[in-house]
Write a structure and sequence with these properties.
Mean pLDDT: 85
Largest sheet: 3 strands, antiparallel
Protein name: Protein GrpE
Structural class: alpha+beta
Shape: rod-shaped
Number of helices: 4
Strand content: 15-25%
CATH architecture of the domain at 91-198: Roll
Keywords: Chaperone, Cytoplasm, Stress response
InterPro entries: GrpE, GrpE_CC, GrpE_head
CATH class of the domain at 91-198: Mainly Beta
Radius of gyration: 47 Å
Distance between the termini: 140 Å
Main location: cytoplasm
GO biological process, one term: protein folding
Length: about 200
Amino acid sequence: MAEKKDKKQLKQQKQSAKKVDKKATKATGKKATKKAAKKPSSKEVISQLKKQVADLKKKNGSLDDQYLRAEAEMQNVQKHDAMDAQQIRKYSGQKLAKSILPGLDNMERALAVKTPDKGGKQLKQGVKMVYDRLTQALSENGIKEVKVAGKPFNPEYAQAVQTVPATKKHPAAQVVKVLQKGYRLHDRTLRPAMVVVAK
């Protein structure tokens, strides 16, 4: 009787195993096997590892290249920013200087007026002191008069507002007279000189 019972249990276990096998086949699409999957040989493992190393070296080289390009780009941006900042500092007084120049012109006109009396001469002397100090301050900040009188006409520094016939003393295309002074801030023209040119 015990033998029948053991056979019955064995039969039930086989049926249960078949059901599990069918379920596994449905789930994975493969038949479940009792044998373990075959392990790859050492040559295959070495080959796979060599391939992985080659792929990683290639990826590393690409990343190194990207890094170097980004580093070079960053250095270029920093250089450009430094140059921009230098230009801003160099020409920061341009607007102020342009607004001061008409006052300087008025002082020059006042100094050109002849004054016969003592009070006028003292006033003129005071204007001259202010004028000298102002031109010195402008010069210290890179603002200088453009000297064009008697030189060949250059449209970068001068603007011709009148022409006169050329002579031996003033050949063609030479600045004969300056009507209004021109000024530069370092290497940049703030205001061109208004001139009379020989033609």
